[in-house]
Amino acid sequence: MPLADDLERNLLEIPVPQSGRVDVYSGVARLSGATWASEVKIRGRQPDTAVVMIHPTANFLGHYALPTLAACGVGAIGMTTRYIGNDSNLTVENCLLGATVRYLRGHGYRRVVLAGNSGGAFVVHGTSADLRFLDAAIDASDRPTGSTLWGTPEVANYLPAGVSRYTTLRSWINQWSVNKTLGNALIWLPKVEAPVLVLGGSADSGSPPAIFGQLYDAVQTATRKQIVLDGATHYFEGQPDKLRQACEAMAAW
Questions:
Q1: d(Cα 135, Cα 140) in Å, to the nearest integer?
Q2: Which CATH number belongs to the domain containing residue 63 in this structure?
Q3: Contacts of 173 (CB under 8 A, 6+ apart)
Q4: H or E element, residue 39
Q5: Which three-class secondary structure state does DSSP give residue 199?
Q6: For residue 93, is it within any domain?
Q7: pTM to 2 decimals?
Q8: Which of 21, 34, 226, 252 falls between 20 and 30 A from 196, CA-CA?
Q9: 98 CB-contact burial (10 Å; exposed 0-12 / middle 13-18 / buried 19+)
Q10: How crowded is residue 48: how many other Cβ atoms within 10 Å of its Cβ?
Q11: Domain range holding 53?
């Protein structure tokens, strides 16, 4: 996405600890000893706050919200992990951002805000088999009925690419198990002490407002705030005003 003239984009090389375990295909990636991030900010300025956008398996170097967040006065950071496009060996513990936080604080950022966005080889079908897609009365919201983020459920359930479409038993349990995963926010949010903002759209087909409420209710000791943007969808496609509202709310927080 082309940037406005008053914005700049920088590629950040973030060191990560070397591991003896071969869990990514590319030897180049393993030997580089780094993960990569895209930094967008107002040209010539060094903000004191960074907002880090990350997803376990999606490449967020060009995340659609980075320019809008940067225009709000923060450093907008789009991350990659070592598991881009590959659920088969993903371990959520390896997606933690300690190295990123240390790197950003060492490069002029006083505050680092972590923003999880969306989700994520024995092929797994039926990963869009959720009755909420077909029955608007379940966790009612103003999302469209009969559609997922990837089309109708009967199509999304059998697409060649999808959430955890290609995985292993170990990786599936690590990410999606009800009782075994360490990636369950409802387990950790009661223990979080840093302020928590829960933000989403009322028309989101992938993460309906009922999920926002669960996350918000799970925060027990930290300062918390919940914002639901009326009519906003999962990707804010064709909704620049809604995206601006979301980014302004994150920057203000």
A1: 8
A2: 3.40.50.1820
A3: 180, 181
A4: strand 34-42
A5: strand
A6: yes
A7: 0.67
A8: 34
A9: exposed
A10: 11
A11: 1-120
